[in-house]
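Record type: monomer structure entry
Structure origin: computed from sequence
Chain ID: A
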Amino acid sequence: MSNSSATVGGAPALTVARDAFPWIATLYFGYSFVGTHPLADVSVGERVEGSPIDRLVVLAMFALSLGIVWSHRREALRRLIANPLFVAVSAIIGASILWSDFPDLTFRRALLYLMLTTSGLAVALAARDPKRLHFALFAAFVAVIGFNLLATAVSPGVAITDIGVRGIYTQKNVAGSIAMVAFIVGAFWTAAARKRTFGLLALAMIFAFLVITKSKTSLALALLAPLVGAGIAFGSSGRRAALIAIAGFLVALGLGFAGFAATGFDTTRALDATVGDSSFTGRDELWAYAHREIDKRPWGGHGYGAFWDVGLANDPIAKLEPGTWLGDSEVGIINQAHNGYLDLSLNVGRPATYLATLAIMFALLRALFRAHQPGADRQTRAAHAAFAGLLFAFLIHNTTEATLFLRGAPLWSLMVVVMLAPSRANS
């Protein structure tokens, strides 16, 4: 699109998007990775009712996003057409109000999902260039991790728990996941930078925070994802060899996830097969319970946002008989299945979860191929390789944490932008 191809109020559409990028990016990344109440513990009742401040921020982002999307409507349509499974799952989320156990909650939470998704689309559109988006992500994460370290130093009694540092977040696993994606983004940005001193210092800071969170899954993926992405994006000397490497990687990943999906996303079986003991996570009982609940509503689930955080009286854990750690858990403490595939199945059913998994895998495939598009410079290749690394980590991370198509979850907010990212600079 040229600068004169479309106008909004007499200004070129691209200029509107360019000028809006710092504003929408700051709002979106700040809301996603810091939030409106850092260091605060949100009660069960507050999770059900929602925060008035959150509503104001989301509405402000949504209003700005509508202007950006409208000014770039043709490009927005192209990106949505390029992600049909993403659009299909989003439509199912909205439609689930028709069969939800709690239609009022589903309406509010599906609306929040759609507004945040629109904001993520606006960020991707306004960026114009994968290199610009990659740098914006890197800068945002440096600021966020720095803020987390500062908060930990200032309020150690709140930020440090017995099982690891949680920083400004509700638990250490969330902090670990933020540090994980920050490390992946930073590793690829530093690899392609002409001067790497700043990148290396930033990576050292990010890695230090990741280590003190004691989030083992995030630490392993932070080290693995860049190796996988770099091996495919930069390891091959020729385009043909690179495409063969990509195809081999995706076949292996696809076969693995096909087997995983065939078991109904049974992480217990997967861990038994790979490490010999699924109980080491302490979540096998929770997963078994989730499977039983999914079997009651396998096709459409209980409605988006209508299983967890539905109030103390209706909390699913409150219905369990005491005598196990799950049944004896305090009502309201457990608000996810610690498996994104099971969690999404509880919300909108197994078929939608299969589509969601394929949507992520297709986006991963596209990012890998874009890293080898003809004429791409090193920074563009690095940006797309980073996006591929993030999507790969996201797929694996959701086997033990629940962020797949989850409104407001920092990792999912990031994935929306990554899936809809520009393929090359728009000029």
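Annotation 1: Residues 1-18, 273-280 have pLDDT under 50 and may be disordered.
Annotation 2: Residues 103-127 form the longest helix (25 residues).
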